[in-house]
Amino acid sequence: MWELPVRVFHWVNALCIVVLFATGLYIGNPFVVPAVSEEAHFFFLMGWARYIHFIAAFLFTANLLMRAYWFLKGNRYARTNPLRRAFWRGLVETLKSYLFLKNRKPHYIGHNPLAELSYLIFIGLGSVIMVLTGFVLYFEPQWESAAGGLFSRVAALFGGDSFSVRSWHHLVAWGFALFVPIHVYMAFREDWLSRNATISSIFTGYKYEAARKEKGDEERGGGEGGAGDPAGGSAERRHGAGDRKHPAFR
Fold first, then answer.
1. With contact defined as beta carbons under 8 Å apart, do 114 and 44 qualify?
2. How many helices (H) and strands (E) does the chain have?
3. pLDDT tens-digit profile of 53-83?
4. How far is residue 186's CA from residue 148's CA, in Å, rounded to a whole number?
5. C-alpha span between 132 and 139 (Å, rounded)
6. Could you give the domains of the chain?
7. What is the per-residue pLDDT across 186-217, written as a single tens digit (0 to 9) for each?
8. Is 0.85 surpassed by the pTM of this model?
9. Cβ neighbours of residue 69 under 8 Å, at least 6 residues apart?
10. Which of 80, 84, 104, 166 could form a disulfide with 116 if both were Cys (CB 3.0 to 4.6 A apart)?
11. 153 Cβ partners below 8 Å, 6+ apart?
């Protein structure tokens, strides 16, 4: 189900976000300073924070490019298509269940459309904004270089001046800080309520789904090109011999 590149992306991305946010907090507001004013090389904490931040940023960018490639190359669970009518119909039905407007949540083997939309916004669009604004700030002292000249034009997309670019960078960073705990909570919640190994699947690539009772039932969660219609029919509550194990590679 979750192929190896998807799982590698997830954990590399998680590590980068934690490191980037922690070092970014210090760069924006250095809360540890020497008690006595002295030469910078005696207290190089800011230098190390920036150095680690830059390394994590380059790794974050490379990881994002790899995921973009696998979005096109991977199996049906590695991509989504919000242009399909079924995506938005499923999103509304899923949202109704979270708002307690219906008793049963639509069943998806992969991510449900609401989760996919949140990943597109935060992990997709949010990451692109962070990469672009980050490189604008990185090359700001060297606009005369080739890369600096390129990103000086990108700066116009975010207001053009350093303050506006930095504000975008900070705001989206705090958006990630809001998204991460919600994502972790929802993953544990789904694992607990569905008993389908949601948490362990991001390590192993496997989830467990109860066998369908009705003949001809079809699994359609996360269909080709995006979230499909929820899998029809009722599922057995018993997990064990009747469970199906979905392979990590298809």
1. no
2. 8, 2
3. 999 999 999 999 999 999 998 888 888 888 8
4. 40
5. 11
6. 4-245 (1.20.950.20)
7. 889 888 888 888 888 888 888 877 655 444 44
8. no
9. none
10. 80
11. none
